[in-house]
Write a structure and sequence with these properties.
The chain is globular, with a radius of gyration of 17 Å. Helix 1 crosses helix 2. By secondary structure, it is α/β, with parallel strands linked by helices. It has one domain: Rossmann fold (3-Layer(aba) Sandwich). The protein is built from seven helices and ten strands. Bound molecules: 2-phosphoglycolic acid (PGA).
Length: 242
C-alpha cells in the first residue's frame, strides 16, 4: 500500500484528481470506477478544473459507479445518477452512453446485478477504482460481513450507513433501506485502487485499515491484498496512525 498524507482536504482532492487525470491522459479509453458521498466531491471539482484548464478530452473514457439506492428513479434528486451528473458528468465531454450505474428501479434486481457485472466484463474490467471508506469499513455499500468473493448484489443498508447518509435527505426515514453495490471481488479485480479519506471521523477506520488484520468484519481491510493500492488521506484521517 502506498500512503500519501496531505495537509488538507483540498490537497487530498488535488492529488486524487491528478492521479485520475494522468490515467486518462496515458490511456484515453480508461475505465474508471467511481464513488459517491462527501469525500470525492473535491476530487471531481479538481478533475473538472483540470479538464477545463488543460483541455484534455474525456470523450473516450468510460465510468462504472460503485452503487445506487434501490427504489430511487435515475432522476431522483438523491439518486447517485443525479449526484454523478451534477458533480461530474455534465461538466466533462463524456458521452452519456459511456457512464454506467446500477439501476435502482429495475424490476428484476437480481437480473440487474448480473447485467451490471456483464457491463464491467464487457468493458474489459476497471483500470482505476476510486473509493471512499465508511466509518464501519464499508467500501461501496459492502457492509461488514460481506463476502470477499461477492459480485454485484443487493444489500440491506446498516443503521449506521443510513444515519450517515440521512444528511442528504429531508427525513431519515426517506433514506432507502437497500442498495445495489458492486461486490468486493469486482472492486479487487480493478488494476489500480485509489482510496481517499478526510477528517477525524475517518481516523479510526484508517487506523483499522492499516494496522488490523484482514477480516470480512471490516470490508476495507481486504484492500491490503491489492498489489496496486494508494491511500491518499489528510492528516486528520491519518492522525491515529503511529
Ligand atoms: P463519505 O462516505 O465520503 O460521505 O464519508 C464514504 C463512504 O461511506 O464510503
Amino acid at each position: 500500500m502506498k500512503l500519501i498524507e496531505t495537509a488538507s482536504y483540498e490537497e487530498m482532492s488535488q492529488k486524487a484528481a491528478g492521479v485520475i487525470y494522468e490515467q486518462v491522459k496515458s490511456k484515453p479509453n480508461t475505465v474508471l470506477g467511481l464513488a459517491t458521498g462527501g469525500t470525492p466531491l473535491g476530487t471531481y471539482r479538481e478533475l473538472i478544473h483540470l479538464h477545463l484548464q488543460k483541455k484534455e478530452s474525456f470523450q473516450k473514457f468510460y465510468t462504472v459507479n460503485l452503487d445506487e439506492y434501490v427504489g430511487l428513479a435515475d432522476d431522483h434528486p438523491q439518486s447517485y445518477h443525479t449526484y454523478m451528473d451534477e458533480h461530474l458528468f455534465q461538466h466533462l465531454d463524456i458521452p452519456a452512453s459511456h457512464t454506467h450505474l446500477p439501476r435502482g428501479l429495475a424490476e428484476d434486481l437480481d437480473g440487474e446485478c448480473k447485467r451490471y457485472d456483464q457491463v464491467i466484463k464487457q468493458l474489459g474490467g476497471i483500470d482505476l477504482q476510486l473509493l471512499g471508506i465508511g466509518q464501519n469499513g464499508h467500501i461501496g455499500f459492502n457492509e461488514p460481513g460481506t463476502s470477499f468473493n461477492s459480485r454485484t448484489h443487493v444489500v440491506e443498508l446498516t443503521e449506521s450507513t443510513r444515519k450517515a447518509n440521512a444528511r442528504y435527505f429531508s427525513n431519515k426515514d426517506d433514506v432507502p433501506t437497500h442498495a445495489i453495490t458492486m461486490g468486493i471481488q469486482s472492486i479487487m479485480e480493478s488494476s489500480e485502487i485509489l482510496l481517499i479519506a478526510s477528517g477525524k471521523k475517518k481516523a479510526e477506520a484508517i487506523l483499522r485499515l492499516v494496522e488490523d488484520e484482514i477480516t470480512e468484519d471490516f470490508p476495507a481491510s481486504v484492500l491490503k491484498r491489492h498489489p496496486n493500492l494508494t491511500l491518499i488521506a489528510d492528516y486528520e484521517a491519518m492522525s491515529l496512525l503511529k
